[in-house]
Design a protein that fits this description.
157 residues, alpha/beta, Rossmann fold, two-stranded antiparallel ribbon, 6 helices, binds iron/sulfur cluster
Length: 157
């Protein structure tokens, strides 16, 4: 046991267990930072039993303190900017962000509006981008699977 601890294999094993848990239960929180609701309806459709995302361990949480992945839609409005930042800061590390929809990626049709700050990555770091207006549930699931694939390779995207 002493040798096991000295060689640091205990901490390695712990890291592997954490990675295994992270890959098999990515709990998500959803935030609309200013979208028209089109993308949000697709996210809700994605979470229904029809697409059965729980087979990947994906579960919607109500609190950022319980979530690993923040799924964001829409451009960031001035009103939502501080809330988005606060939600991101409340999530435990390591945390990941998926931007869903053209508006989340670039501002989309809202780009240049007086009340819009910009895309999601103008306010918080984004790990995976899912384009589309709105993207289909299959594309959203693909975004989460892309994130898990990158985590499995051991690299933060
Ligand atoms: S990408 Fe399209 S559906 Fe999504 S928020 Fe923008 S305009 Fe609405």
């Amino acid at each position: 046991m002493d040798t096991f601890l000295k060689e640091g294999r205990w901490s390695q094993a712990l890291e592997q267990i954490k990675l295994w848990a992270r890959l098999n239960s990515p709990w998500v929180i959803h935030f609309n930072s200013g979208s028209c609701n089109g993308c949000d309806i697709e996210i809700l459709a994605t979470l229904t039993p029809y697409y059965d995302v729980e087979r990947f361990g994906i579960k919607l949480r109500g609190s950022p303190r319980h979530a690993d992945v923040l799924i964001c839609t829409g451009p960031v409005t001035r009103q939502a900017r501080d809330r988005l930042r606060r939600i991101y800061e409340q999530m435990p590390d390591p945390k990941f962000v998926i931007a869903v929809g053209s508006c989340a990626l670039s501002g989309g049709v809202f780009d240049g509006c007086y009340n819009v700050v910009g895309p999601i990555d103008a306010v918080i770091p984004v790990d995976v981008y899912v384009p589309g207006c709105p993207p289909r549930p299959e594309a959203i699931i693909d975004g989460v699977v892309q994130l898990l694939g990158k985590l499995q390779q051991g690299a933060r995207p």
